[in-house]
Task: structure prediction
Amino acid sequence: MTIYKFAGFWRRLVAFMIDSTIVTIIFVILLVIAALAFFFGAISADNDAWIADLTNLTGFSSALLLIMVFYLSINIAYFTYFHGTTGRTPGKMLLGLQVYSVDGTEVSFGIAFLRAVGYLVSSLLLTFPLGFIWAAFDKKKQAWHDKIAGTVVIIKEQQNISIGLSVPDPAPAAVVAQTDGGQNDPDKDALPPTKQPAGKNNQKTP
Result:
């Protein structure tokens, strides 16, 4: 068994900021594409109706709600994919972190999805990140979304410590012996030297 140290709050915060920046870039690109598609589709139809929709406060509020849902969907998809495949987002890779279940096993897609949705709880529905700050004081450095999904974040570097997460070492690969038919084995089929029959006067016969 190898013991890995639990990742602290600040290291996790930097990794999360990197991931949030990536998610924001993806969101902006997709939003611009969607806005351009809507714009060109609207002006090719009825200009008056399009202007009326923009000045309608109800329609504007609905658009903002739709944009927020779109952003949250990208967040959930991003963290679910990376945590479900490798346990490491790009931000965690740069900081040497990895997400594991509390029993030391790798995270499945179901757990990764539950953890990503748990971000909403940790952020108190995007109002205050109390659940994220909780990791700074928790014994296992677990945020609220970690406790919901039963996960921990570790520093994926071998440590000579006694407190942390015990992860089973991977089984060594089987070594298959390859033989060459004994052609290169000098001792194979070697026979002990035999005595030649002796002739008269103990002389060896050729």
About this structure: The beta strands are 2-4, 97-101, 151-155, 165-167.
